[in-house]
Design brief:
single chain, 393 residues, alpha+beta, 4-stranded antiparallel sheet, 12 strands, 62% helix
Length: 393
């Protein structure tokens, strides 16, 4: 809108000046006026030229007065060009900075993404560490509880240590007695061989410590009676000696388990008359090894009839096989003799006599006479079979 007004002003101004110049030129021509001694025609031309100059001058003056842009275009073009060059240079520098900024922005975005990934990993690691911290706290609480329990146990062990010291002193005294009687041991009468069973019995497990101790006490009394009978003295003079911590530990083991246990009180060494009866304890799990009438073993033999000596040897060989089979099944053998069974002399005689008249191949079979546990003894029923017939003995 401002430009239209300016154009209209210029048009009107140019028209007015042209009109004035035309009127002045006409009057100068009609009156034949002369300037500077020139002819009227030349004077008219000069007036026309002056009028055009005035029009142009006035136009520039009006434009310069009305618009800063025109003044700048007329008088500051060189400065404007210089400014435009500087602006263009700054624009190019800005574009380069913008490109660098974009590269930096991309790098920053990549670093940001990497940082976010690392932050996520750190969060996961922090969560794992927190979980581990909770586990360690729980473990620490458990360790504190265990430490308290160990402290209580340590107090118990301290008391047991005092007992052990007392027992150790007693052992030293007994060792001194044994050392002094070593020559007597070499020359004396051995009453119990090392490992010989003095007494044995079954103690039920899964009960209180006191109940097990009561049964163990009964077994100790049985061992005292057996030792007295062997020595030919009163019970009070044949009291066996057993290491007290071993005795109590055996009772705890039986009480803590659910299985019945075979308890053996055995001689700790070769014991001669006049020495203390020193013993050890042996524990074995008890169970029913053979049921009544259960088959144990069978063996074939070839015999020549009418030979009692051969028949006796066959029966003895078979009984050794039965003994080995019963031990393999879990019946505890006698530590001295290695046997597990008891056989009456009459039964042995009857089976030998049954073999005497036979000739050829026979089969001997053994069956349990009654339910037999690991403690034993194993009682047998023997069966003789031939090709022609079979009979039970």
């Amino acid at each position: 809108m401002y430009g239209l007004v300016l154009i209209l002003v210029l048009i009107v101004t140019g028209g007015v000046i042209a009109f004035i110049g035309d009127r002045v030129g006409s009057r100068v021509g009609k009156r034949k006026l002369s300037l500077f001694g020139l002819r009227p025609r030349h004077t008219s031309v000069i007036v026309t030229i002056i009028t055009g100059v005035l029009i142009t001058t006035l136009t520039f003056v009006i434009l310069a007065g009305a618009s800063d842009n025109v003044r700048t275009a007329l008088f500051g073009m060189e400065q404007l060009n210089q400014l435009m060059g500087e602006t263009k240079a700054r624009l190019q520098a800005t574009d380069m900075q913008l490109a660098d900024a974009k590269v930096e922005q991309q790098q920053a975005a990549a670093d940001l993404a990497k940082s976010k990934t690392e932050i996520d990993k750190l969060h996961d690691k922090q969560a794992a560490l927190e979980e581990r911290a909770r586990e360690l706290a729980a473990g620490n609480a458990q360790l504190e509880a265990d430490a308290a329990a160990l402290q209580q146990k340590n107090q118990g062990l301290t008391m047991q240590n005092a007992t052990l010291m007392t027992d150790n002193q007693a052992l030293e005294e007994r060792t001194d007695v044994l050392r002094k009687g070593l020559q007597f041991v070499r020359e004396g009468n051995i009453v119990f061989q090392a490992g010989e069973v003095i007494a044995s019995g079954i103690v039920r497990g899964g009960r209180t410590f006191e109940e097990v101790l009561a049964d163990m006490g009964g077994l100790i009394q049985l061992a005292n009676r057996n030792a007295a009978q062997r020595l030919g003295v009163g019970d009070e003079r044949s009291e066996i000696w057993i290491y007290q911590p071993e005795y109590e530990q055996a009772a705890r083991t039986i009480a803590a388990g659910e299985d019945d246990m075979v308890v053996r009180i055995v001689a700790a060494g070769n014991l001669v008359r006049g020495e203390p009866v020193r013993t050890n304890l042996q524990l074995f799990k008890n169970r029913i090894v053979y049921r009544q009438d259960e088959f144990i073993i069978a063996r074939p033999f070839k015999i020549n009839g009418h030979n009692p000596g051969e028949a006796e040897q066959v029966v003895m060989s078979f009984l050794r096989d039965v003994n080995a089979a019963a031990i393999a099944q879990g019946i505890l053998p006698d530590p001295i003799r290695g046997s597990v069974g008891i056989m009456e002399g009459s039964q042995f005689y009857d089976i030998v006599q049954a073999l005497v008249p036979l000739d050829g191949t026979i089969v001997l079979s053994a069956y349990a006479r009654a339910d037999t546990d690991a403690l034993g003894p194993l009682r047998l029923n023997l069966k003789v079979e031939t090709d022609a017939k079979g009979q039970n003995e």
